[in-house]
Amino acid sequence: MTKKAVGERQAVWRKSFLILWLGCFITALGYSMTMPFISLYLDTLGHFSKWELNLYSGIAFSVTYFSQAIVSPFWGNLADRKGRKLMCLRASGVMAFTIFFVGMAQSVLMVIILRLLQGAFSGYINNATALMAGETPHQKSGQVMGNLMTANVTGTLLGPLFGGIIAGVVGYRMTFFITGILMGLVFILTYFNVTEHFTPIPAKKIKPISRVFHELSQPQLIIVMFITTLLVQSSLLSISPIISLLVRQLMNGQGNFSLISGIVAAMPGFGTLLLASRIGHLMDKIGPERVLVTGLMATAIIFVPMFFVTAPWQLGLLRFLLGLSSAAMLPAVQTILTLDVPSEAFGRVFSYNQSFQAAGGVAGPMVGSLVSSLFSYEAVFLVTAIFIAVDLLLVTRVMRKAS
User: Fold this and answer.
1) How many domains does the chain have?
2) How far is CA 316 from its chain centroid?
3) pLDDT (tens digit, 9 = 90+) per residue, 89-100?
4) The overall pTM is greater than 0.85
5) Which residue range forms the structural domain that includes residue 101?
6) What does the alpha-carbon distance between residue 325 and residue 182 come to, in Å, rounded to a whole number?
């Protein structure tokens, strides 16, 4: 390949990266505009006891991940045959409609059904990551994965703030309407501006995933990365569906707890945003494995003092520190997958990783809802600390064997 051709290829993948970064940002922004307030929104659709509201909030939050976990391998197989850009378009297009109609729901059941459909067709960020993994030179993989993380984190950071303001001024429904419109914009931008150098592969020529794993040099490491994704996601989302209820409890039901909930929910984003791009450079320098272990260790420690919070500012401060530690975890997992898996299997391997991430999205909120109903909202943090500690043991053990 000539120097001119290399330069043109680099310009193309950088343009695609910028659009996908914006798409991931809007996807995360729209998602986080609505999710911290899902329990408060459901509370407007009927008269529920604390147990019922916790249960419905957990179901509405996790049902998206449930359907996502089931269908992700199918979409991953299709992505390896048809390309990842098509999967980004499928995800953003369908999500635009499902999220918009959640804002028109008249019952909890309607919200649950729409979020079930949303999960079945979601996956923009995952496929954008797989697309860039195939387009980016390996020596820049950590940097690109880290920068894509900043899109996710920045959207997650600003979403609760915007959502809290919108919900406080014009009501919860408007946040869903705005999110649906934004996802329609993502579809248009991706369709016209993203280029993927992909040659369709006939179904008969695709290696079975069992053969792909058999040819890997460290298949156990990949499996543990899947488990890590599940446990990390479970831990990070365990409090999410009920965080607004915890904040309302800490404020004794007084004040603008919608806005405060948004700020508290956004605090991990501030921490992650500070480190995400630096983490990418660090992974390219010292390796993603060491970065992952450090992040898991710090996260397990930070969860423990959350059990003792007595005011929203304390919870917000600890969640900020959580953002600093968690900046390392999922990007490190994705970088390990990128470096240890052949490019022709990216779609399927990343989809399996998404399935484990989605399973964590189911388990975390349901465990959080159950623990908070049986004990207290604060008890959820001790359970999540145990999840992370278990994963740390698994990761360190498999890495010793691999070294």
Assistant:
1) 1
2) 20
3) 999 999 999 999
4) no
5) 3-193+210-402
6) 30
